[in-house]
Amino acid sequence: MRRAILYSLFFTATLTGCKKDLTNKFNNPDQLGSGVTDIVPGLFTNTVSNNKLFIQDYGEWFYLLNDGLGPTGYEQICQRYISYRYDWFSAYNDLTTGNGFDDYAITSQGYFETSYTRLKTWESIRAEVNARSGQAKLDADMYFKLITLVKLYQSAKLVDFFNSIPYFNAFEGTTGNSSNWYPAYDDPKSIYESVITDLGGLVDSLPIAYNLMSSTGQQILAAQDIAFKGDISKWTKFANATRLKLLVRIAGVDASFAKPLITETLTKPLPTEDITFPLWYDTDQKSAGGLWMRGMYENIYATFIPNILMKRMNYGDTAYTSGIDDPRLPVIAMPTKYGDYRGVSYNIDTQTPIYTAGNKYYPYGDNLPSSLSRNSFSMYNFATIVRNGKMPVYMFSLAEMDLLLAEIELKGLASTGKTADQHIKDAVINSTNFWYNLNGSSDFNVDPDAAGAAAPLYPVKPSDAVIANWGDTISTKFLAAGSVDDKMEILMEQKFIHLNILHPYECWAELRRTGHPKLEPFTWHGAVWTPFPERVRYPNEESINNPTNFSKVSSENNMTSKIFWVPSDRNPTLYWSDYNYK
Amino acid sequence: MHLIATGKLFSFQKGFCPTPKLLVVMKLTIILWIIGCLQVQAEGYAQKVSLTQKNASLTDIFKMIRKQTGYSFLYNDRTLSKAKKVTLDLRDVTLEEALQACFNEQPLTYSIVDKTIVIKEKEAMQTTAAPTAETPPLEIKGQVLDESGKPVVAATVTVKGTKKSIATDENGLFTLTVPDPNAVLVISSIGFQTREFKITGRTLVSITLTQSATAIDDVVVTALGVKREKASIGYAVSTVKGEELLKSGATMNPFLALYGKASGVGVNTGAAGPMGGLKINIRGAFSLNPNQNTRPLFVVDGVIISDRATSMGGTVGAGYDYGANINDLNSEDIESIDILKGAKATVLYGTDAANGVVLITTKSGKGAKGFGMTGAFQYTIEQPKSYLDLQKEYGLGSSIYDTVYTTRNGQTVRQIPNERFSFGPKFDGSDVMFYDSTMVKNSPHDGYRSMFQNGHSYNANVAISGSSEKGSMRASYTNYKYLDIISPNSWQQRNTFSFNGNIKASKLASFELVSNIYNIVSQNRREQNGASIAWGFPVDFDYNNLYNNLYKDATGYQRDLSNYGVPTAVGDIGAYKWALDKNRNKDDKFHIITSAKAILNFSKHVFFVGQFGLDYDNTNYTSEISVTRILPSVAGGAFNVSKENNTVQTYQTLLNYDNDFNHSDFHLSGFGGAIYRLRTTETIGTGTIGGLNFPGWYSLNNQAGIPSAANLYQLRSYSRGSDVLYSAVASATLSWKSEFYLDLSAREDWNSTLPPGNNRYFYPGASITWNYTDRFKIPAMNRGQVRFAWADVGNGTNRYFANNQYDLSYISGAGAQAVSVGPPSNILPGALSPERKREFELGINNTFFKNNRVVVDIDYYRNNVYHQIISLPVSQASSSSGLLINVGNVRNWGLEFSVTGTPVLTRDIRWDITVNGARQQSKVVELYRDLSVYVRNSLINGNGASVNANLGRPAGEIMSYDYNRDDNGNRVVSSSGIYTIDNTKSVELGNVNPKIYGGLLSDFHYKSLSFRIGLDYKYGGTIFSYTNDRLTGDGQLASTLKYRDEQHGGLAYYIDNTGTNIPWQHNQGAPAGSADGHVYHDGLILPGVKLDANNKYVKNDIITSATNYYESYANDLATAFPPDGLKKNDYIKLREAAIAYALPKKITERLHLQSMTVTLAGRNLFYLYKTIPNIDVESATGADGYVENTVFPGQRTFSLGLNVGF
User: Fold this and answer.
1) Interatomic CA distance for residues B645 and B664, integer angstroms
2) At what angle do helices A120-131 and A39-49 cross, to 10 degrees?
3) Which of A365, A546, B475, B488 is least crowded, fewest Cβ atoms below 10 Å from its Cβ?
């Protein structure tokens, strides 16, 4: 009997040990187990800290710039110093095959897919909220509202790229419904309207939700909200400003929907300062883990400033002259070996001989004296942008809002309380401050690669009076412009100058919506081309993994179908007829 | 032991060759050490047996012998029924003497294989003539030799009918007095067939013994190492003997010699060459889950081996194709490889064996002869054999008129252009300026070939073994050095120590210990050269000049080429050569495979086997990446280190039962027990941040950058994992006489890769074997067997694949301290359960004619792999990438055959031929709900081509875009006369899986000379070759000469002012309408149709240029490729050929050797047939078999080997 008991105990202990061993080894010891921590704050932080939502992505930027054929090249924000030696530009007029206009940076770098998968946190948080009650639910609900704001923001960006996207059944595959595993493509206008409506709801409910949080919850939010440290007023203003932007964008095709909501939006909190947030580390453009600036650093030979921007900042001669030239010029652009500022042209027939004659450049971003002594054209300013380890994450700025308000006034979409030209002046002033602030925060001057030669990259900020005068100059030009289209040209020039390489997707959307600013034609061996890409293609994976729904949008899966918000009266003259534009 | 533990005794840290003196000292040390180890076992063969029985059955005698010696008997009941009863009175005689006495008057004979005594019927001719008259005794002197002419030591020579016997000495010699000139000698020795030899008056005799080949063939190793008589096996097992692996010289690992040697077993290497991984695939194992393991389980002496799929550019170490632990095995130490192919055969290995089992048995000291010492030495030349056929007529440029001039020293000179495509002017030998402004000749160079060299390898093996009735031991040391064909800095060196010992410690217990220890150091393994494939291998320049004088500057570091106007190809070729020249990526691996076994004989029917197995490896990876520049400041450089450790521990206890019933008509044997298997893996690494401060110093202290949160992952990396399998197994075999066998087996697994609620699964298996020639005699057929097997087995999944856990990381830095939680990427609708495989197989095994001169083995199998565990892709708009579910049912079926014949067999000549092959087919019979298309994986990144498993179709089909076609299937051309791709739908364009593959072996022996030829073949299996596509697009393949000019079939045309090509004459000047004043000669009109002005398809008449046509193959964006870019990959290859010569005895005697054999061999000699141009058929990246993006030459080897017996 005693032996039987001993055997039983032995086998029971063994089997229990085996079972526990099996369970332990089923779980990955380096992944989060249940009960360790409240996952909701971390889920929110995960999304906000992920690239491609607010923080711009290295791989995407690498391919955006690399061949010069991506959106940044076609919208003339940023370009290579093209000559005939780059024979792939012979396909510049091709908007069909991908050999010309190249959407590789978007399609291959997972912009579409990761916009959804990096927001899987949205349904994860929702599930947590639904499973909770009491204060725990209220604390989690704050995060759900914030993550919803991110989802709305990103969905609108997706529409701006692709037009129809899965939306109403998207983002919720874990519900177990196959219609959510293979979501349908929805009407883009309906998506926009829904996003605008939901943003309105958030503008109202965010402050309330915050006040319903426990004090502990608020403390945790302050730590987990890497963007605004729990300052819900900033999130609210960002939501309202985003809403305003989307309303202006849709106004051209549905003014009756947009107008009253624009008016409503103007009554709600809007940014009173530039909305950016600092990263929690200094970015290193030279090694793995870098962000969008690393994409630029590694393609520094593709970061020249095109004439379409340069001509609007640098007037008279090529040198920078305070009072005559845009005060932002020396903080956005970098001087050439001649000590002045020159933009690259899209007239390759004229630019090739310049290159052949020996006007070349230093193709790396690792030695400022070499760049300053060898560059024949202006790259974007290393200190302000490319090598700025303190570069914050851009979300919204006063100048961008001013330009939206200017357009609202110009087109009579609502009353802002100021005239359009006053908004233009505000935009210039706010933009100048924005760019000098960025420049001032940069510590590139102490980087070894600057080799003590960074002074030309840190111009002294002009006085407020000089800046205001420049605002008046632009404002005057705006007033002098005749038609709405002519005024829009001035307005969009300012939007391009302000956002430039910092936010090229927004520039491209506005260019496609308005047809402004007009672009330089591309001249190649005598052929003059004026291609105008309207969208990027869906990733191949959708045709494979979601074929039934994809088939309903495949006819528009090209680079030339317009996004729904392009109005029928868009500026028809998309290019200048020659290179003598002002 | 201390020396072994450090793992450094045999490694040479610098340079490839140690000094000869050091080598000799080391080898002597090893030999002496081995000898020292074996001294304890040098007792001879005298295990004693005592038998005193009257009229006893042989069965009873066998039991007594087994009890006293531990030797077991293997016999056919029907055969034994013919035996007479025996009366014996033997005291302390040897086993051999006891057996001689038992079989003296029997119609039976025996042979001893390892610890098994195999009983067979005597052949009719073995009757002895009685002496006719009284004659005086005769003294006979003789020598006993084996088939290769080596002396057989300690063979027992008995005068038949007497108890007079003697053992041969170390030279196989004996002297014996026989009663008369017609006496018959009976000669027996372990490992040989017992032979009777009639004196017929001779006093000097030479007797050759045949190795117990038949007996060895008749015993196979089955699951859990159980040896079984082949006649009792109800399923397919392929056995490859160790000597088969060496006949054409030793290879770097034994699997490189396995091509075409086992039906249904596919072997592939990839672009990484012999240092890289191998793909072994049994019965076309294919999973719907691209990450599911489809490799067989590898077991060495009962030890489960850690294994992994091969890849180039993976995450292991520095991203090279390091192969797996099976790469380390040493051919010289392999006794046999038994391959269990079907589900029934593998039931007892459970989950790990879902794709078959490769059982490797290393050599032991059993049957050792003479001093038991052997030496094998081999020198091999590794010769690159390029299949890349580059054109050498046209240089860089976009057309023949694309000539570029520049000013040099005030003079206008022609220059080599900055172009990617080679459609430029013809080479004319004129002076042109190179990119560094030096003047060179405008002539083609064989730059690609210049990047490779002849490699070589050297292999030395010394083994010593001893055997007695108490046990046996073997120890061996192998030193192997290999220099790769890609660079003097690319090499591998190995030191392998193998020990195999067993001892019968008492009547109750015997023990076995097997240990194989490897230290393998490799440097600069091959890496992908896809960049060069994309940008081409221009023949316009000398690559050595390019590298030494352009790519590098006077400082010896990289030149800033930004202002030199060089094509990308220059940078890529330079970077490739730079990496091999300046960087050192090394992996230093210590690997040990150890098995310890105890056998306890509780009673004559019950015994217990306990075994512990360990496969342990530890690899130190170091990367010394050179700085790229030192002026104006030091740039680049890195030093990275990492350490990887893998273990597989196996603990196994089996209680065995073995007994006869009903007057031995029934025999029951079986076992039951428990097995525990634990696998662990761990990697840890670190490296410098932001380059190096000082060139040439590789240390973390030389780090130039500043650590930060953003680069923390570079500073430290760590990963680990483990999974465990608990199992209960049982197996029983019931036989009736030797005619019928019923085999039942079952296993229950508890698998940690599955959710706790669903981690237990049971699988049964059964087989029936009928040896019908025991019942029906069929003329000329010696054995006729039909067998049937069925099993339903289960499988888990990859470690941690089934748990949907969250990731956690920290965000910390200036002003931020936060937790980041990442959700799982998949949706888990419910707990996963095991996937299943149900298989039946039907086979025959027939042998024909005397000496079994024809052996036919055929198997048909059919299985369904269902309930597969996959991540079923969903739209990522769902926010998840896939569903983790059990879905699908894929049916696989196939036929395997092996025919061995001996068409010529005379006293001096023997010719053996073996042909084998396997036909494999599959069909997806079920997917998920209404899903009919399943994309298993993308064929290549970023395009619309994929490998599918679509409903109702064979698994592994390549789906991609076809050309646009009219209703009649004609290809449609664009307005420029080029074919266009229809990217609206995907069509089936091939299948990645081969249809038929196998091999042919021919062994021809003439006296001491033998000649071997080995072929292998494959039919089916489509490959995507970047090399063919992109180098076509670049105009660099010789095949692109077609249409280039009048001589190559090109049409003449000129280009008018609208850019249209207008037909013209080759011999006329350009007309006035020409836009550029040129006549072009590279026109072609592609067969097909075009759209006319009425939007109707009409025959194409648009002249396009060869340049335009070929450039359509260079799709850098990989959005789609021309469908004919996919290539069939059929081939027949002369894999091996060898001549071996065993030196005559009189020579070996003078050298005081037992034997000496010289072998001259070649491997990978040439293709008799291959369908894919420009690349070796085994160029797939990472040995996956169907994507090629790394073009290295094939590797032909010629070896000279010397095998010596002491």
Assistant:
1) 52
2) 160
3) B488
